[in-house]
Amino acid sequence: MKYLILIIILTCSLFSCDKNYINNEENSFYIFGKFDTISDSTKVFLKIQESNKIIPIDTVYIINNAFQFNGEITKPEVFGIYIDNIKGSIGLFIQNDSVFIDVDKNRLSNSIIKGSELNDDYLDFVKKSNEIISRTNYLFPLFQKARTENDFKSLNEINKKMEAIHQENISFVLNYAKDNSDSYIAAFALKTLLRDKSISVDTIASIYNNFSHDVKKGDFAIEILLYLESQEALNNIDN
Known about the structure:
Layout: E1 5-7, E2 29-34, E3 43-50, E4 53-61, E5 66-72, E6 77-83, E7 90-94, E8 98-102, E9 112-114, H1 117-133, H2 139-148, H3 152-179, H4 184-191, H5 201-209, H6 213-216, H7 219-238
Parallel strand pairs: 2-8
Antiparallel strand pairs: 1-5, 2-5, 3-4, 3-6, 6-7, 8-9
Helix pairs in contact: 1-3, 2-3, 3-4, 4-7, 5-7
């Protein structure tokens, strides 16, 4: 199995104490999940994201409100945990470290993840970006009202405000990618901007070139490299 050797172990005793019980072996990851209550034999699916594709890895069954995955990865990965008959998923960035998940079965996205510094960095980045983007929320009803009333002056003013917020978020993401060149999350951040035509290929290339060797081995950095190569090929055709 590519990048992953998955060994499934289920032991309810692992969840009887604090997360300090976890002793992670070198080059291995451990994912532990616990519910307040849930039916035994409920399926839990572990999936991985590679090149914008969600690939199933393995399936385990819940025993005594708990589940566990462990295995090996050669580089940071984006995992998704899905619970049978529950909408949504738990997304997490991990390296070879130990992760404890306090699962909120009513809303999986609210589950508490502990133990992965990489995932903490991801959540911090997303939070700060969302704080910027959320400032457009109050503008949407104003936009709809102006459009209904054919108020072109107001529409123009609202569009300018939305664009200013959009550009502020772009600046935040670019600066994050520049300032965290040894972080896998920097590559994730930069990849989110590839479709934005307001950002030059040279800007993307400059930030990518400054990434550390380890970051460049990750999937998101590889996607950025493929994008840069495709843009160079198009440029050669045009010339």
